Amino acid sequence: MINMHTLFLREMVLKFNYFIIYYVLVINFIYFLQLILAAFKLNDYIRKIRYSDYQKYKVSDNMLPISILVPAYNEEETIVENIKSLLALNYPKFEVIVINDGSKDNTLKKVIEAFDLVKVNQPVRYRIKTNKIKGIYRNIELPQLILVDKENGGKADALNAGINIANFPVITSIDADSILESDSLVRVIMPFIEDKKTIAVGGIVRIANGSTIQRGRVVNIDLPQSRLAMFQVVEYLRAFLTGRIGWDSINALLIVSGAFGAFRKDAVIEVGGYARNTIGEDMELVVKLHEYFLRNKRPYRIKFIPDPVCWTQAPERIKDLRGQRRRWQIGLMDSLFKHKRMFFNPRYKQIGMIGVPYFWLFEMIGPVIEFLGYILIPLAYFLGLLNVKYFILFLVASILYGVLLSLGAILLEEYTFNKYPSLKQLLKLSFYGVLENFGYRQMTTLFRIEGIVRFREMKHSWGEIKRKGFQEK
Amino acid sequence: MELIVLYSIILFSILIIALFLYLVAEKIYAEYKEKRKQKYQESISSLLDGIISELDEKEVTDVQISILSNYLKDKTKREVIEERMLFYFENFKGSISTRLTKLAEDIGLVDYEIKKLNSRDLHEVALAARHLGAMRSKKAIAKLLELIYLEHVGVKYNVLMALARIGDEEAFIEAFKRLTESIPLSERSLVEIADSFEGDKIYVYRKLIYIDDDFISSIFIKSAGNYKDTMLADEIALFLTSENKEKKIAAMKALGNMGDNRYVEAIISLLEDEDWEVRAIAAKVLGQMQSEKALVPLAVALSDREWYVRYNAANSLISIEGGMDIVYDILDGQDKFAKDIIIAVLETSYGWDKVLEYDKFADRNPRLSEKIRKYIEEKDR
């Protein structure tokens, strides 16, 4: 009887180990497929730029005016510089709406003082329900800037308040710790001009740690000194240059980064704005738009374009990184659960049949499988259930796939935008592309698992990252 | 199993190595090309500069044309010539532009670009259309018109823009007649194309504002408004009574841009349109027209059920002479919506200047600025 149990257990462990290997194989095939699709799409994009008329629209009255929403919660260290850089953007007509979401620090005071703002009595149309707006501040000499002070309600609530105040047909949300390149707005808006079906556009987010910032502008791009930030540079390149572009190439983009995305305001209002009570409001909005437009059989496009750059600060402390990854995982799960009816539902076309299932099977469950693999395969080996060849194969494969994918993303970057042109930078990036597979990747997997474990407890909370002010040089 | 993993690693590695080799090869080739270009750059540019500097006074000689035509046979030299010529087209306007077009035709550059319009690579086609637009050669018209049916945003946009720059009225009209309702381009990009037309705009507007397609018609009504030529005002005013909302709005905007206030009464009547977007634009345009006749209707519109209408009416009201007197009276009234929207507008830079100016010259007690402060204080309480 005991032997039967042992045999059964042994059989189960072996089967699970084989399952893990197949799982790793499938996910990496998908990643490589994305890499190939991204390479074609990037090539396509680079060629498209040659005949794009975006320079003409920089000064045209026919350019879409845009409302830039900057939700701020305890952002006193970076908010003023961030607003200055936004006000200096190269765009024909825009407004900057800063929404102070009940900050406990001096965010409100700093913005009021820096821009000499006074309270005005602008009525608010609550087209989307939000927490109470306590006041609107303006400077009559600086009509493009509006500061909204509201009761704390989370980032989504702050963004919805901004939408209620916004005067223009396209809104873009930018995190308070981010900096846009001067042409970024024109480029992110061009898809709305070129294709009337466009309802949302995401741009690439890059890491500013290590670069030189002057008067709210990135004047010299360099790689960070911090190892943790360096790993994230590679990770972001992989996520944006292969992941997002890959999904865009099959019209199944499910995430437009909260750090920099543009949306048609009427479409956002139609779906009820950003979902409150979720910490992944960026993904949630995009999935909601997909679901709404597909369900109502209305033509639409959600696009990603790889060169309107938004620079952001990567966390340099493990504690902050942990919080960030935990939030991302919880946001992802929350959104997938809310739209579970799309899972393998042909009514939702490629979103229901490819995008959503991928996120369920690989992005949501992936960290658990990966974690179990790290534990069970060595365990099975030490218990004598697995032979050494299989054990080494798993180790080599999982590390090598990661290394190859990172190198692929770095090569795509070098081939296209080449923001890190020197050989030293290329070597440093490649080195970290290899190194991240020995510890960093596993660490972020653990953070994501923590997100899964604490999902129920934390899905409505809005965490805090200690921002480091941009280093002006 | 082991074999699958092994093969996948080999496959992925080959892929990455191939990508890497491609990248290296591409960079080496780009560097080689750049060096070759630099080699010819100076001689070709100085030859072209010399020809262009005398283009206003002298004809280009057959020898010069022959030299440049021969250069076009070589890829690198052709790229240098093309870049330089496009730079001239971009920066030289007026009579020299026509001569530049002739030069581009004579040396075969236009034919080369027209040939590229046959390419199966749609990026190539879009780029060629863009270049042909810059060169403004009528030789390209027939081929460009054929491409109108291609369902590619980049091609469609650049073909239409090229036809706008070439400026041939009949070809431009024909192109827009060929557009179907499913045109993927946004309204703004089409207005930009219409605004960019370099031929007889009045003729084109007269033809296209009456086209059956309401969308295209409203594009040209809007563009006519941007052109601000009052010759078209009477014809545009006919659309104020159109059943199509877009046309109605376009006509109001056009008349507002032209500043033609003969149609104030017709636009005032649109403040009662059933569609709020029409009412909102009517309120805005009345401000542009600056007619005292609009003051009372605008004051009534301050109580409209739609926020945009109230907001535009308030802005227009304070901008028209005599409007501030009405504003003063409204602040004495009971309509909270009207008061709130007026205060919001007066707190903008433009609005507050108006308040200060009013207090300086009007003899009313209390002063308007005090009245506003009092209202705000009461509201805050």
Description:
The complex is a heterodimer of chains A (473) and B (381). With 473 residues, chain A is an alpha/beta fold. Chain A has one domain (1-60, 178-466). Chain A is built from 16 helices and 12 strands. Chain A has a 10-stranded mixed sheet with strand order 3-4-5-2-1-6-11-8-12-7, with helices on both faces. The termini of chain A are far apart. The mean pLDDT of chain A is 88. Chain B has 381 residues and is mainly α. Chain B has a domain at 260-380: Leucine-rich Repeat Variant (Alpha Horseshoe), CATH 1.25.10.10. In chain B, α12 packs parallel to α14 (245-258). Chain A: The chain crosses the membrane at residues 20-40, 358-384, 390-412. Chain A: Residues 67-216 form the Glycosyltransferase 2-like domain.
CATH topology of the domain at 260-380 in chain B: Leucine-rich Repeat Variant
Share of residues in helices of chain A: 40-55%
Strands of chain B, count: 0
Which structural class is indicated by helix and strand composition of chain B? mainly alpha
Element string of chain B (H = helix, E = strand): HHHHHHHHHHHHHHHHHHHHHH
Mean pLDDT of chain A: 88
Oligomeric state of the chains present here: heterodimer
State the shape of chain B.
elongated
Distance between the termini of chain A: 74 Å
The number of helices of chain B is: 22
CATH class of the domain at 260-380 in chain B reads Mainly Alpha
Radius of gyration of chain B: 30 Å
